Amino acid sequence: MPIYAFTARDANGTPREGTLEAASPNDAATELRDRGWLIISVNEQTATSPNTSLLAKLPFLGPSSLHVEISLQQIAVMLRGGLTLLSSLNTCSEQAPRASMRRIWAEVIERIQEGASFSDALSEYSCIPDYAVRLIRVGEQTGVLESVLVQAAQMMTSRREAKRDLMTALAYPSIVVVAATGVTTYMVTYLIPKLSEFLRGIGKELPAMTQFLMDISEFVQQYGFAILGGILTTLVAFTLIYMSQSGRLACDRIALRLPIIGRIFRLSGTTTFSQCLGILVRSGITVLEGLVTVEQLHYNRFLAQTVQRARESVMQGRSLADTLKVKGAYMPLLTSMTAVAEQAGNLDEVLDEVSRFHENQLKSMIRQLAAWITPVVTIVVGGIVGFVYIAFFLALFAAAG
Fold first, then answer.
1. Most CB within 10 Å of its CB: which of 143, 160, 217, 230?
2. pLDDT tens for residues 309-349?
3. Which residues contact 320 (CB under 8 A, 6 or more apart)?
């Protein structure tokens, strides 16, 4: 017969855990009730799949955003199907693909059994975003936990996909630049100098293009350490400036004004603001509380400061739309639509529409960036590598002539 793991409390309220054999979950529950125990969860034990990935068993491999999203969706489905929260968490713990994810759900179960709420237990883990914890806390208070779990998972999915699209757009050009830089550096610093020594040894003059590259090579060899030191010093100085509060604020503000990239940052920030605040308000969180969460979501400090000042202004009685009108921050449509929503009283619905519009704009902008940057990088890098190759072969022809 199947073996069932159970969690219960006896007549004195003492926690009881263990396993028992039964023909079905109902038979197991009946046996526990006959003992006079209050059932918390009953789950069939399953053998560990032999096909589980070795990497998934590594304890240091943390849970990914995708794993958290899937778990939240699974819990929502099981709650909607009538299972208890602890039973749903037990199932997620058993089916989690990584050991770290299984450990987290097991610890959450323990915290809930000790009397903590689901949201408080989740707040201890950095892999669970703050907005998800806030949504779950509201869901616990209003009795719509399964609904907010789905919304939290959707927000995580949207943010993960936007980041993935941007990384995908930049991956190929980055690989091309690195590979071309390595090949060019090798030829300029090693091959062409060797060929130059050979030509000079037989009394041949270097072609103009080859001589130009040789001058660059000699300059790099003579001042290479000084150039490298200057680059490292600049990077260290920039890092120190960026780590300071005022320095990062200035850098993030400048980043929003860069051509193309700055617009992507603004679209991303606008999507984050409208999507998060809309879901939070729809779930019953006040605008002021929602702005606290939105501020924490922004990686860009200038946008975070804009939200902070907006919250302070709203507390003083100003409208949200007026406080968001900061030059170089959010996209103009956000402020205009927010003003309409405040008058109509449907802020959550309008923010949802604004979120979808700017999310589509962001995806389109990322596709355009990928379409523009790939041929530009190919032409520039191809031109540099082609110039080096031509200079190299001209030197070979000069040696043969």
1. 217
2. 888 888 887 888 888 888 888 888 888 888 888 777 778 78
3. 287, 310, 314, 338, 342, 347
